[in-house]
From TrEMBL:
Subunit structure: Part of the FGAM synthase complex composed of 1 PurL, 1 PurQ and 2 PurS subunits.
Keyword Cytoplasm set for record: yes
Gene Ontology molecular function: any one: ATP binding
Broadest EC class assigned to this enzyme: ligase
One GO term (biological process): 'de novo' IMP biosynthetic process
Protein name: Phosphoribosylformylglycinamidine synthase subunit PurS
Gene name linked to the record: purS
Length: 86
């Protein structure tokens, strides 16, 4: 069984209230080295068999038509899960 990982992030010009809340909380917890946070979404799509170029192309199409809102979000990556660092 294969798995495709899709990552979606808000476009840079879109406000990110969740990221803003996280960046405000980090210093209170002792994490003072971080100056900005953007919160996105990660999807894991499982497929029967191996992840092929055709599967990746279908996942890219699904990402742009269903998994993301192209008005406010960018699809950052669509990759075979075996290529994602642990």
């Amino acid at each position: 069984m294969g798995r495709v990982v899709v990552e979606v992030m808000p476009k840079p010009e879109i406000l990110d209230p969740q990221g803003k809340a996280v960046v405000g909380a980090l210093p209170r917890l002792g994490f003072t080295q971080f100056t900005s946070v953007r919160q996105g979404k990660r999807f894991e799509l499982e497929v029967d068999g191996d992840v092929t170029p055709e599967i990746l192309a279908a996942a890219q199409e699904a990402a742009t038509t269903l998994l993301s809102n192209p008005v406010i979000e960018d699809v950052v990556s669509v990759v075979d899960a075996t290529e994602v660092p642990a």
